[in-house]
Amino acid sequence: MIPMGPPAAGTEAETLIGALERQRRTFAWKTGGLDATGLRATAAASTMTLGGLLKHLALCEDMYFSIRLGHQPAALWKDVDWDAEPDWEWRTAADDSPEFLYALWAECAARSRANITAALSEGGLDHPLDFTWPDGQTPSLRRALIDMIEEYARHTGHADLIREAIDGLTGEDPPE
After folding, report:
1. What is the pLDDT of residue 176?
2. At the top level of its lineage, which domain of life is listed (predicted)?
3. Handedness of CA 122, 115, 56, 14 (dihedral sign)
4. Can you name the CATH fold of 12-167?
5. Domain residues of the chain, as ranges?
6. pTM of whole model > 0.70?
């Protein structure tokens, strides 16, 4: 069962995962149920779209919780020349159908949940990532969860602004 948010009094892992799931749930609500026009809409002077956010956060899910935990990500990312096109996911989302974007994000988030569960059973929050920073440090699963919570929080704010401009949807907590 996917938690609705962090428990009032849970373990560190339950609290971190609950916080991440609350961000995922709010993001899904803010980006959900739109057609291609809605997913391509922008707000103000930004070129950011909800479709781009869906594809970007799908990539982040796979980067943090598949690749950096030693698992295979979605095949979609394999042939991208990230050096030549570092914003590929943002640019190409306009060419993708809503069905594809929603399914990609859901698939990547589901894979992340399974990989997080496996990593917790193998080493808890201290489980090292299969990744080293340029300074030689290897971050833990705990750090990856914190980083992903921050990634969702930032982009859910963007989604909130764009969605309000599309159809007036506002609020902080999706309906049950």
Report:
1. 67
2. Bacteria
3. negative
4. Four Helix Bundle (Hemerythrin (Met), subunit A) (1.20.120)
5. 12-167
6. yes
Six-digit token string for 21:
């799931």
**Burial tier of 137 (Cβ tally within 10 Å: 0-12, 13-18, 19+):** exposed
Q: How many CB atoms lie within 10 A of CB 133?
A: 10
Please state, for a pLDDT cut of 70, what percent of the chain lies above it.
Answer: 99
63-78 mean pLDDT? 95
- Each residue's pLDDT tens digit, 92-146: 999 999 999 999 999 999 999 999 999 999 999 999 999 999 999 999 999 999 9
Phi-psi region of 28 (alpha: psi -120 to 50; beta: other; left: phi over 0): alpha
Whether 141 and 125 have beta carbons less than 8 Å apart is answered as: yes
Tell me the two tokens of residue 1.
Answer: 């069962």
- Look up residue 89 and give its two tokens: 């996911």
d(Cα 59, Cα 109) in Å, to the nearest integer?
10
Q: DSSP letter at 129?
A: P
